[in-house]
Fold:
Amino acid sequence: MTAYIVRRLVYGVFILIGVNLLTFVLFFAVNTPDDMARLAIGGQRVSADAIEKWKVERGYDKPLFFNSEAKGVDAFTDTVFYARSLPLLRFDFGFSDGGRDIGHEIAQRMGPSLALALPTFALGLFACLVFALLLVFFKGTPLDFYGVVLCVVLLSISSLFYIIAGQWLFAKVLRWVPYSGFVDGWDSVRFLALPVLVGIFSGLGGQARFYRTLFLEEAGKDYVRTARAKGLPERVVLFRHILRNALLPILTGTVSAIPLLFMGSLISESFFGIPGLGSYTIDAINAQDFSIVRAMVFLGSALYIVGLILADISYTLADPRVRFE
Structure:
């Protein structure tokens, strides 16, 4: 297991290097430093001196990959890639194009993102599993039929509808919660209740239907029929046998998603005014701040790799037959 984890970490480093290089090329293929300067300063009618000054202040006046005017190692180190993208490999996010410390912003915004993502993830997983097990327990009954219909309806509706409808009903009509905003401490529950509820409800249809399919597949196997033939109650068969043996595919999606909770929700945070990493990324995209976007893409890739490794490790805990040599 240790050798497998080390090997996966080494693979992850090469993947991060590739992601870093690819995002750098893509961003600078879309916008040159001159275009970035015009967007930051404002408008096309900007003097060449103002553009050059902006580039010099942020280090964009240097060549991208190779500096032909420098000698020796400086030909590679005195470049935009070495100064702005290579430090990402040691998680030094540097400064945004607006001059703000990206690492400090990430540290400040990580708390609100987790305050929204953790309860949405935990309660959503619990609700989906319970609903799916309920449908399997009443398989073939009207409850199962209408439950599946409800799942299809829920997954067919955009999450934006749930956000807008939730704000209209609970914030405007009933006045139970505020429209948007965020505060520190326990008072944040008032602001997080609606986005958490919306997040759970919007993901219930697709995940519950998927879990129901997994449970039904397990329910048709020989060991389940043997357990029923021994006279075990249906609830024991459902929870002790079917649920336990269906954990592997469930862990694939759940455990690997845990590190990505740090990234927050792009849509929910923007609509509900939560100052997390999701809204931070959206604001950076709208402001054409490519330094922030590159940092968030790199951070998301690193967290995704960690999530996949954690999912592989969790397999051995859920099923002792799984071993990595």
Observations:
- The longest helix spans residues 102-137.
- The chain has a mean pLDDT of 84.
- The chain has two domains: 2-90, 109-281+300-318.
